[in-house]
TrEMBL record:
<keyword id="KW-0030">Aminoacyl-tRNA synthetase</keyword>
<feature type="region of interest" description="Disordered">
    <location>
        <begin position="1"/>
        <end position="22"/>
    </location>
</feature>
<feature type="domain" description="Glutaminyl-tRNA synthetase class Ib non-specific RNA-binding">
    <location>
        <begin position="50"/>
        <end position="206"/>
    </location>
</feature>
<dbReference type="GO" id="GO:0004812">
    <property type="term" value="F:aminoacyl-tRNA ligase activity"/>
</dbReference>
<keyword id="KW-0436">Ligase</keyword>
<dbReference type="InterPro" id="IPR042559">
    <property type="entry name" value="Gln-tRNA-synth_Ib_RNA-bd_N_2"/>
</dbReference>
<dbReference type="GO" id="GO:0006418">
    <property type="term" value="P:tRNA aminoacylation for protein translation"/>
</dbReference>
<feature type="compositionally biased region" description="Basic residues">
    <location>
        <begin position="232"/>
        <end position="249"/>
    </location>
</feature>
<dbReference type="GO" id="GO:0005524">
    <property type="term" value="F:ATP binding"/>
</dbReference>
<feature type="region of interest" description="Disordered">
    <location>
        <begin position="224"/>
        <end position="249"/>
    </location>
</feature>
<keyword id="KW-0547">Nucleotide-binding</keyword>
<dbReference type="InterPro" id="IPR007639">
    <property type="entry name" value="Gln-tRNA-synth_Ib_RNA-bd_N"/>
</dbReference>
<dbReference type="Pfam" id="PF04558">
    <property type="entry name" value="tRNA_synt_1c_R1"/>
</dbReference>
<dbReference type="GO" id="GO:0005737">
    <property type="term" value="C:cytoplasm"/>
</dbReference>
<dbReference type="InterPro" id="IPR042558">
    <property type="entry name" value="Gln-tRNA-synth_Ib_RNA-bd_N_1"/>
</dbReference>
<keyword id="KW-0648">Protein biosynthesis</keyword>
<keyword id="KW-0067">ATP-binding</keyword>
Length: 249
């Protein structure tokens, strides 16, 4: 007998290519499992062009897309990431570049954790900055065995909005708190203050932070003097084997 499925029935869940353990299944990544090895090593020119076109559809530059398509390991991982992220019909370049980073940075997919739960944070734009991506990649490779959405979002700065005005106020406060040391040690103390700023503005735009930090530093200390330059330069190390003292008379 033929069983008819009601048009209102919910669709069957898509197979997870990682099978819950972080390893993409061969059947999922290639329609013919028996031809897996052959497809990995040779592959037709048509398949390579089709794969390159797929990569270009997510915003990857043509040259880089062709290079990725010609690399069996990268192509296999990137195709799996694209499918699991649900962007097979294309996406914004900003999203595609981050998905490409996932496929190329995560070397061992069998060690990747909760890929199906984490990728939507990229496609939805909730994770987009370099700082957030660094945290996301750390969660993928070194995160806990059990996925905790609240903990993940906190660790990756999801939902944290830092405006240019926030950056300006935070840097001004830190400079005021360290004013005495800055005026005394000047540019030699720059690294200490920079570390405090980075810690306080972890999820802020890096370029905005750098520009405001540089502006505030010059406003307080002025341009570097010759004394500043000498204080910041490291003394040259003596060459090994060099004799101490002057020549014998």
């Amino acid at each position: 007998s033929v069983r008819l499925r009601c048009c209102h029935s919910p669709p069957r869940p898509r197979e997870n290519p990682w099978n819950g353990c972080g390893t993409p299944s061969r059947a999922y990544l290639h329609p013919n499992p028996q031809g897996w090895a052959r497809a990995e090593t040779s592959g037709s020119m048509a398949d390579s062009k089709e794969t390159a076109a797929l990569f270009e559809s997510i915003g990857i530059a043509p040259v880089k897309a062709k290079e990725a398509a010609a690399n069996p390991k990268v192509a296999k991982k990137l195709r799996a990431v694209i499918d699991l992220a649900g962007v097979g019909s294309g996406c914004d370049k900003a999203v595609g570049v981050l998905l490409y980073k996932v496929a190329t940075v995560v070397k061992k997919f069998e060690e990747a954790k909760h890929m199906d739960k984490i990728l939507p944070y990229i496609t939805s734009g909730k994770v987009k900055s370099n700082q957030q991506m660094a945290a996301l990649l750390k969660e993928l490779t070194k995160g806990p065995a059990t996925f905790d959405a609240a903990a993940f979002e906190k660790n990756c700065g999801v939902g944290v909005e830092v405006t240019a005005e926030d950056v300006k106020k935070t840097i001004a406060k830190i400079f005021e708190e360290n004013k005495e040391a800055l005026l005394e040690k000047r540019y030699a103390y720059q690294g200490v203050v920079s570390g405090k700023v980075r810690s306080a503005l972890k999820w802020a735009d890096g370029k905005t932070v750098h520009q405001e930090f540089t502006r505030a530093l010059k406003a307080m200390l002025g341009e570097r003097t010759e004394t500043d330059k000498k204080a910041g330069s490291k003394p040259k190390k003596a060459k090994k084997g060099a004799k101490k003292g002057g020549k014998a008379a």
